[in-house]
Amino acid sequence: MRLKTKLVVSATGLTFAIVVVLSGLFVSELLRQRVEQTAAANDMLAREVVLMTRQAVEAGLHANPPLDRTDEALHAAVTGALQSQKALADVMNAIVRYSPTVQDVSVTDAQGLTLVSTDPDALNEPAPYRMSLQSVQQGSIAHQTKVVFGQPRVLDIKQSLDRNGAPFLIVHVGVRSTFLRASYEPWLRAALIFALLAALAAMIAAALLANLALQPIEVISRRLESLTSADRDASPRALEKGEGNDAVVRVTRTIDRLGQQIRITEEGYTALQANLAQMLDTLRDGVLMFTADERAVMVSDAVAYFLNKSESELVGKRLEEIFDQETALGAAVLRAFASGGQVSAANVTLEDGRQVQISLDRIDDGLGGGSNMGTLLTLRDTESAVQLGQELEVARRLAAIGRLTAGVGHEVKNPINAMVVHLELLRGKLAGGDVAALAGAQRHVDILAGEMQRLDRVVQTLADFSRPMELHLSEKDLRQVVGAVTELTAAEMQENGVQVVVQTPAEPVVVRVDAELMRQALLNLMLNGMQAMTSGGRMQVTIRREHPFAVVEVADEGEGIPAELLPRIFELYFTTKAKGSGIGLATTYRILQMHGGAMDVKSIADASSPERGTTFTLRLPIASGAGVEGRKAVTTGASQKGMGERV
């Protein structure tokens, strides 16, 4: 075997072995990190259940204290408190439902008797022995692989609630190994495929690189042979034949190319830095970027509004040099950094009375190890945010006024044009003095009177529409508001062959509205949909939550609205109906705006489309005191309710 072949094979084999070892370490490290992440995530869930258990016990004992001071009475009171707290059961069931690795959650006493569990069969039964997930986490890679991909079993994560220094209640979170395996197999399979492809690519690359690396040796060998040959008069062109493969020349050219790329990259980085600095300068929020050792490396111009110091004075300074412990803002920022966690919109009152929100975002290295690369500090003046919101609200109202005046201008223009024409005709007849012409003048007078009345109606409608409405706000269940409207229109819908289907969630959707005005807005939409379905059809009314909004959709199977007319349908007096007034949709839009909501419309007018029809979507803010959306969960002694349909 030639020396060149031996060297190529050796380099390829060595590279393959290194890649295989590194791939094995890579896959094992991934498995270890996944196990640690699973353990950490489920440990947080266990701590959450401990907190809910503590609250349930405190609330239950406060409401129903034990009959006496014996341990048996206390145990009975605690058991009753835990089993009567629906919030605790909801949290435990939510964990089982939404965590991909958790099989069950239970709470036992110090003797291991199950008091509360997501498994009804486990109540009042001794808790079974389970291997601790922490022991798996601390074990070797071989042990972790055996547990995750071996015999199915349930691993245990437990957190205790202590009393007098001893465990009193213990929360158990059961993690099934088959769930872990199902969660880990996709990325493990992808990692193995990646490792194999990397090994194959490394072998090919090693063979090619080894072959290229040996080419200069062959050139040197040929030149040495030419120097030692008897023919000293060899042609210079023959000696120069291999210059294109000279290693030094290739390295020099490569270095030149790398230098050019570095210069291009540096120019791009400089431009990017300039763009970023320009973007930061336009922000109203003060932004400071700190390195891991708490030294400022990037400061926006808006920071001067909060600290009375320019950007040049702050860049490169340490955290303690920028923020003074004696000031309210400095003390709050230093406390936030000292906490070591994230801070979101913490309010601070400055000495001059200004309200400032501080937010702290930790930037890790993205490798899952939790290493801190830096910290982003944001300072926000709440008054500026409120002012910006007010400016947006003014812009929104001006846009609504623009749509209103566009329709009014069109309605006012028509009667005025007619009045001008007939005034000119009347003037001509009066100037002629002819008796017959004077007799015909009465017709023009009647037309002028009619147009004046028409103009008066337009102005009166505009005045009524623009008059401020007095809102009588109260918290209402949106399902009841929709139900009242469907009941009101039921007879008329049935007479016109329209089937109304209402789809509502099982939980209340509480909004703070004027119920009468909201019924009027929904009535306008449903009657419009009915009138659009001249041959009858199906009308779908859907209520749902899209946090932080309550959404009502009214969808019909009518003729649809042409795309060119959609931008105008909310204008006052605009209508496509022969006997329409053009007020209904404009009024509905105004009612939604007064409630801080919004309305969208989507329509398909193509007669050949199976989705022909119009859908109006109303969005209203959910009442601040309303509870979060209920989630479907299995609870002991509680029935489940889903989405219902009512015709």
Specify the number of helices: 17
- In total, the number of domains comes to 4
- Gross morphology: extended
- The fourth-level CATH homologous superfamily of the largest domain is PAS domain
- Tell me the total number of β-strands: 18
Largest sheet: 6 strands, mixed
Could you explain how this protein is built, in words?
With 647 residues, this protein is of the alpha+beta class. It has four domains: 3-191, PAS domain (Beta-Lactamase), CATH 3.30.450; 276-382, PAS domain (Beta-Lactamase, 2-Layer Sandwich); 387-466, Signal transduction histidine kinase, dimerisation/phosphotransfer (DHp) domain (Helix Hairpins), CATH 1.10.287.130; 474-646, Heat Shock Protein 90, CATH 3.30.565. The protein is 54% helix and 19% strand. It is built from 17 helices and 18 strands. The protein has helices at residues 3-63, 71-84, 86-98, 133-138, 141-149, 177-228, 236-239, 247-281, 303-307, 311-314, 319-322, 328-339, 382-432, 435-466, 478-495, 515-532, 584-594; strands spanning 102-109, 114-117, 131-132, 154-163, 166-176, 286-291, 296-299, 343-349, 355-364, 372-381, 474-477, 498-504, 510-513, 537-546, 549-555, 598-604, 613-621, 644-646. A six-stranded mixed sheet has the order 16-17-15-14-12-18, with helices on one face. A five-stranded mixed sheet has the order 2-1-5-4-3. A five-stranded antiparallel sheet has the order 7-6-10-9-8. Helix 1 runs antiparallel to helix 6, helix 13 (382-432) runs antiparallel to helix 14 and helix 15 packs parallel to helix 16. It starts with a helix and ends with a strand. The model is unreliable at 227-251 and 627-647 (pLDDT under 50).
